[in-house]
């Protein structure tokens, strides 16, 4: 159902790993390889967090800061009534990609440490952190999925950044606090 | 929604916050039924958020945009461009300033993390990533200073160019420190503000020093 999402889910991660392994063939410059891999890792993090998780397995996690400045991590899971064969395959690809790549980057970490090529250390650590963050977020979504839906149901936020969005809902909390004055 | 009858939101009232996908399997499918359109929307929205934050850094005034809608794209772009500009130049040899590039990276990110930990230990109310976001975005004036320095160095590297670079870097250092202090100091209790401000100014001082002492090979 979402072939493009599946492709992109794996594309950035695998490209980052391949570039890291074969960077000597592509370019002599350490800087170019570093920047390329870093950008690939960042795009991978963003697309897995914001797009492919949502489309392939119906899970989503994010951080929101409420009015008094406290930050909450929200983990949301879509209740899937039927499981078609294609979505099962996509889900399997999603989870495999999500789990295998951080393991590979951990292997790279040890190889960097033991071969003392320390200039790559920053990059490998960045790779591990980004990929493990997504893994942790989605596992948390998956495990806590049932309980978090009720809570998230009552929290809709309006933003002025996307006036073209069709679905605009108001938070009930905000209505009670600010409804009387009519403005926010 | 009876309570909505007397509530109206006009375009010029600043409403900020984060988009939460409406929950319910039906509405998730409704909003994101195609892959291309929503991804473009998401990308554009994130790009606009990043752009707005850059503007807020250049004209620092009390605003919650940097604080509440944090993201780390801006700091990443600034860090990479600053590290690239601080490179010596010869890209052909194996030893092409590789360690210096990673050094700049590590200094900026590790320094930002240490300052964040410091402010949290002093009892700050701001969250970890918000603080990283502000510190990263406030590197923008120094990145501009680096650009100016490189242009000035193209013209010559005598005493005059050094004085120009010194003035520019000092001004941008002041701007960075003021901008970040404007956002971060408020989250501290009043008697702790100086304790929070001095590591920030030290951090930007180290970056300014790297910029000022840069000489192309």
TrEMBL record, chain A:
Which lineage do the record's taxonomy fields give for this organism? Eukaryota, Metazoa, Chordata, Craniata, Vertebrata
Membrane spanning residue stretches: 26-46, 93-114, 120-139
Source organism (scientific name): Ceuthmochares aereus
Q: Does the keyword Membrane apply?
A: yes
The record's GO CC annotations read: Golgi membrane
Can you tell me which family this protein belongs to?
Belongs to the TVP23 family.
Identification of the protein by name:
Golgi apparatus membrane protein TVP23 homolog
Q: Which UniProt keywords apply?
A: Membrane, Transmembrane, Transmembrane helix
One example of a Gene Ontology biological process annotation: protein secretion
Compositional bias (Basic and acidic residues) = 169-184
InterPro entries on file: TVP23-like (IPR008564)
Q: Where is region (Disordered) located?
A: 165-184
UniProtKB/TrEMBL annotation, chain B:
Q: Where is the Yip1 domain?
A: 59-210
Which keywords does this Swiss-Prot/TrEMBL entry list? Membrane, Transmembrane, Transmembrane helix
> InterPro entries of this UniProt entry?
Yip1/4-like, Yip1_dom
What is the annotated localization of this protein? Golgi apparatus membrane; Membrane
Question: Biological process GO terms, please?
Answer: endoplasmic reticulum to Golgi vesicle-mediated transport
Residue ranges annotated as transmembrane are: 70-89, 101-122, 134-156, 162-184, 196-215
Report membrane topology.
Multi-pass membrane protein
GO terms under cellular component: Golgi membrane; trans-Golgi network
Domain of life here?
Answer: Eukaryota
* Sequence similarity: Belongs to the YIP1 family.
* Protein name, as recorded: Protein YIPF
Q: Which gene encodes it?
A: Yipf6
